[in-house]
Amino acid sequence: MCLAIPAEVIHIEDEMATVRVGEALRKASLMLLPEPAELGDYVIVHAGFALHKVDPEEARESLRLLRELASAADEEGLN
After folding, report:
1. Is residue 66 classed as helix, strand or coil in its secondary structure?
2. Which of 16, 41, 48, 49 has the fewest Cβ atoms within 10 Å of its own Cβ atom?
């Protein structure tokens, strides 16, 4: 099972993007996106490919909730 986490596009060169999730930077191909990506867009990345864009507000809320869950798990010793 995979967990889709929104990643912010911070750099684009040709068909490749550098995306950021928190402090982590990754490369993602933009070849499968149905529409062009722009800097600041949030995308869902799977296996190195950006699959679709996500509404920025929804992406930020998802990331906030995931951080909250991770923090709660740390406090309860689940990690």
Report:
1. helix
2. 48
Cβ-contact 50, 19 below 8 angstroms: yes
In this predicted structure, what is the pLDDT of residue 66? Answer: 87
Per-residue pLDDT, 25: 97
CB count, 10 Å around CB of 49?
Answer: 14
Question: Would you state the pLDDT for residue 33?
Answer: 96
- Of 47, 54, 46, the C-alpha closest to 9 is 54
Tell me: the pLDDT tens digits for 41-57? 999 998 899 999 999 99
58 secondary structure, DSSP code: H
- 3-class secondary structure per residue, 28-65: EECCCCCCCCCCCCEEEEECCEEEEEECHHHHHHHHHH
For residue 46 the two structure tokens come to 């799977």
Tokens of residue 25, six digits: 């930077």
Share of the chain above pLDDT 90, in %: 68
